[in-house]
## 1
Amino acid sequence: ETSSTTLALLLYELALNPDMQQRLREEIIEAVGQHDGKVTYECINSMPYMKQVISETLRKYPVLPNLQREALADYVVPGHPKYVIEKGATVFISVMGIHHNPDIYPDPQRFDPERFSPEALKTRDTINWL
């Protein structure tokens, strides 16, 4: 079950990073307090650090290591006019390769939810997180 696995990996990373665990705990306590002690959709959406922690967990441990797509039209690879992905060809996209590319995510093995802060998101193309 992918959700249970993702949650286990998130808890593992928080166990290794008590400062992040404490920051998230404080955010949860505050958010639940502002929503009459109820964990609702609105309550969860009011936790930006929680979203960052989940996004970083999925970056480091993607549910699928790669994606498979079919080209809908011929596609000339930019900068390489001799290379054409022909219509109907199967294309594999390495999610692990993108998420662990040090040019996109410096020190990719380090767990760092700040990679998904609003400021950090502005510096990266949205395609770099699948």
## 2
Amino acid sequence: TKILNLPNDVLRDLMRRMEIKDRLRLRLTCRTFEKLVAETHAGYFDKGSIISYFKRRNFHASHAHNRKTEMLAVNFGDTPFKRDAQSATELTQLRSRLFNGITFAKFELKVADSIPLEFTRNVFENFKIEELRFYVESQTQLYKCETLPSFSYHFYK
């Protein structure tokens, strides 16, 4: 393909201007594009977030009991990803396949106590964040926030 003949700095610039959804599609076309997407910076985005929440699942319509499943809603720029919180490592792997760095003007983080600290640290690897907002409801969550790499951040309850 002729696009791969472009100089590396031009390819990196193209990757920074590409939406996350397009990066997902491009990486599926061939191994060369898969590698290019994973090894380039995703660019600058106004906002992003990681929020955990509970979703009610009704397994039996005839029974009155409902179960709650913990979910993670992750927004990298323009693209939302929703996963069962048990699949947190999948999100970390996906992030590493989509970019080697990303920059946000604002990023929001609201993670339940059950989400491993290692997940949060891995997701933030090679992030540049101008304003990071934490939403904490417990001492455990506050500890997680304090042990992340230093950003300019604000705490909200």
